[in-house]
Amino acid sequence: MSFPLDPRHIAAMYDCLRVLPPFDKYKLPEADEIEFRTPARADVFGEFQEGSPHVITVSSARHSHTFTVMLTLAHEMVHLVQALQKTDNKNQHNAEFKKLAKRVCLLNGWDYKAF
After folding, report:
1. pLDDT tens, position by position, 15-65
2. CATH class for domain 7-114?
3. CA dihedral angle for residue 41, residue 84, residue 87, residue 105, rounded to 10 degrees
């Protein structure tokens, strides 16, 4: 990226994604109700933590393009959808996650295998 990744950037991307299909159907909280973090962690691309507030982390060490930031953020938003719907999220990439993720990728023209 030509700019240092900042939580404000993630919040802006989140607000964009939450009003686009399929996320617009899930009544996701606004960005100011989510804590966004951008640590320089090399061990993960992104992470979702359920709580009050929910936390979405996107690693600044693992991203150098806005496109991959958007993919990672959308991936973590699928976990958020599962948390809000209180569905089984013990196996984080369970059948429900895969179904939601495939729909996100189909509607956005993204490669599911990269998601």
Report:
1. 999 999 999 999 999 999 999 999 999 999 999 999 999 999 999 999 989
2. alpha beta
3. -60
